[in-house]
Amino acid sequence: MNNQTFQNLPLERLSSVLKEQHETFSNIDLGTPREILPEIIAGLASPKTLVITGLRRVGKSTLLAQIAHNQLADNYFFVNFEDERLLNFTADQFDRLHEALISLFGDRKIFLFDEIQNVPEWERFVRRLHDQGYQFIITGSNSSLLGQELGTKLTGRSLRYELFPFSFREYIAFHGVESPKTSVLTTRERGALLKHSREYLVNGGIPDALKYPKLDILKTLYNDVLYRDIAARYGIENVRSLQELAFYLVSNPASEISYNKLKTNLKLGSANTVKKYISYLEDAWLFFTINKYAYSVKEQQIAAKKVFSVDTGMLNSVGFSFSKNIGNLMENLVFLHLRRQYQDVYYYKTKQNHEVDFFVPSQQLAIQVSQDLSDEETRLRELRSLVELSEEKKEQHRFQIVTLADKETITTEGTIVDVMPLYEWLLSVRQYSEI
């Protein structure tokens, strides 16, 4: 359908599409309540546009339905711009769309727009009607495009939220398990949570993949993002290079990467091409990169980055023989749960060039991730890095080692380190904050 076809689409046919979308949305399975829901509901008290970004199929539409069900009664319009019948919809057609919505439902003051990044210059309409007193909740799967548009037309008029795959708390709720109400757990509770944490590492938190485990949803999702959201959107002709880069990253999470080394190893032409492709992969929510902590921004940019996947289930589904590497899966999962709450997540290299997996300066928090500490060499290595960081950073810090099942408190060279099992750490971390 081209622009001319859409413009000539009879109002009756357009109304039929919109009515069908509304009925489908109204009857959607509300699924597992998302932890971010109370924060978004609190945001509704402001007149600002609420923007929810996240990976395809991460549950943005379901979250919209949860918001509508909990808060909006029937006072909203819903439009899904991922619908192929609205392909090539452009900003100058919003008034016609609005007219069709009013003819169906009367004048309502709240718009729910799903996957809005498919409409170029959508922010023009949103700003105009926002100034007239209308409210918008919009979702999108490209963080950069939304950020650019918000920055040009909606500066100071929006609240942004990020939706990730299920947290561990949401994962066990999906499986009908109630989160412990106290920090003191019985042996049976610890055993059950350990079992679920192991499964969570392998399965990840993409709702549809958990709901339909026999379908190859994660591979399909991965390919959709590569081909539809990146290659097609940015006109990439050498798709194979993008494929090879993405496959390398999904097979090597929690690893340091260098643009120059990737350029050479994958024969990608230039370091700038690698950098550009990785930025596309990040914007589409497949991967995240973090910098080495340094006082100098220049040093941060020059140093190798570490790369993480948006979902550990995707690592196991798409990556090369990855499920056996529990340590890297754990580190990826710890990153995701830190990133839900904090923007300033780094890795740290001591002056002796020993690595601390995660450093969050705003929280004065340093974390190592290790499958277990039964091996004395591993135990000493993990503690050594934390002690060196403690000596280099004179402020009071919290030091943690996240393991699969170990729990203890270690004092070494004046540094107190809390060792926590993964399931306990995941349940203790507050999962979401507005960005």
Q: What proportion of the residues form beta strands (DSSP E)? A: 15-25%
Q: Which structural class best describes the helix and strand composition?
A: alpha/beta
The rounded distance between the terminal residues' Cα atoms is 37 Å
Rg, alpha carbons:
23 Å
The number of distinct helices, counting runs of at least 4 residues, comes to: 19
- Fraction of residues in helix: 40-55%
User: What is the domain tally?
Assistant: 2
Q: How is the largest sheet built, in terms of strand order?
A: 9-10-11-12-14-13
Report on the biggest sheet. 6 strands, mixed
For this structure, the quaternary state is single chain
Q: What is the number of beta strands? A: 14
If you average the pLDDT, what whole number results? 91
What is the 3D form? globular
Uncertain segments are: 1-5, 431-435
